[in-house]
Amino acid sequence: MAKIDPRTVANLLREYAQRASMRGDNPYRTKAYLRAADSLMTLSQPLDRIIAAGALTRIPGIGDAIADIVTKLYQTGTHPSLEKLREDVPAGVLELFTIPGLRPDKILKLHQALGVNSLAELEAAAR
Fold first, then answer.
1. Taking 90 as the threshold, does the pLDDT of residue 127 lie above it?
2. C-beta separation of 18 from 82 below 8 A
3. Residue 114 is part of which domain span?
């Protein structure tokens, strides 16, 4: 796959954070992915130059681990950890993040207790 733009990398990091939170990962880690995604949206230099210079960790919110993930996402459009998260967390669950006021911990509880995996299933469970 061709290298992708910073906006797409940021969106993939957001997906990574959402899926990780649904799996019950450390909330501070998932917030770190979201902060890194926000930082990628405000870059003043091209992402390829930053990666080539080994300067990703100079960006606020990006440490070594996230820099490795960002590099792989940029170069390939995916990451083995993201693919594992995609296997573990149904895609429909991500729809629930679009509901204002519905936090990741509540989405996780709905998913675990009621098997809610989509907006349609949430609507059915609410009836």
1. no
2. no
3. 90-127
